[in-house]
Design goal:
The protein is mainly α. It has 10 helices and no strands. The protein folds into 3 domains: 3-113, no CATH class; 116-211, no CATH class; 238-299, no CATH class. Helix 3 runs parallel beside helix 4.
Length: 299
Amino acid sequence: MGIMSVRNLAVGNSVGEQMESSRAIPPFRCYEIEKTKLHKEWQIWKRSLEYYFEAEDITDQKRKRAKLLHLGGPQLQAVFQSLPNSEKFAVVSLEKAYYSVAIQAFDDFFQPGRQDVLERHILRKMKQQDGERFIDFVIRIRQQINECGVDKYEPEICKILSDIMLTDIIVEGCVSDELRKQILQKDRSVEEIEEIGKSLEGIQKQLKDLASSREEPKLYERVYGIQAKRRYQPSKQNRARDFQSKFKNPEIKCFKCGLFGHFSTDARCSAKGKLCNRCKKSGHFEARCRMQLGAPLWK
């Protein structure tokens, strides 16, 4: 391959990358998606496409179909070419519904990958997680309801079914017994249930914060009080001094120095460390030496 060919290939790749990055939304690579996830991914991609049309104020049916196929990419274009109903327009119509017909054909094609019964089973098992906000739980329920096939019905019926499912799952899966009790007492709208749930959650959080603030001084005293007690480890001399201070008696006489008011174990004893001239031992005065001609000095 010559230098010019390599350069042209590099330029081509660069142009392709720039075109890819300039797309409003990424192409829908349906051949690379698992069959069980194909319908869900198609719904997500189609929703992004509708947002794009709304942002760009694109309403013309023919232009919308052209954008659909252009943004969808080669794989979606190949599927479109094989769909039998992609050009099946109504016999009597003032304007051909190019986009609506194409979208319906794609919906029918990707529909078999969805299992509504399985999705409803997943919905019924949903529970509010520990620490999960009530509003986040409601959002998760709504997202799962959208996977249960309610979109095949008319908008009014779809909303009724969605509200019924949402209410049932909140009753079964919410962590608030008070919310469950209020829902079961009387029929309530979804909007009312959401408002009660958020209100009860806010009250519960305030009560928890208040209880925590009241507990902090006790916790501080309990923790630091125990630590202070454990940190204070009296020495042998201090224990003797504490004992003496508790049972201090002016009649007590130290047998090592002969003075009153303390025990022989007291660190303040004046005979501590002194050498006895009689027995040559340390810790007492000669006048208080026990040994005198082989017998105790005092009784």
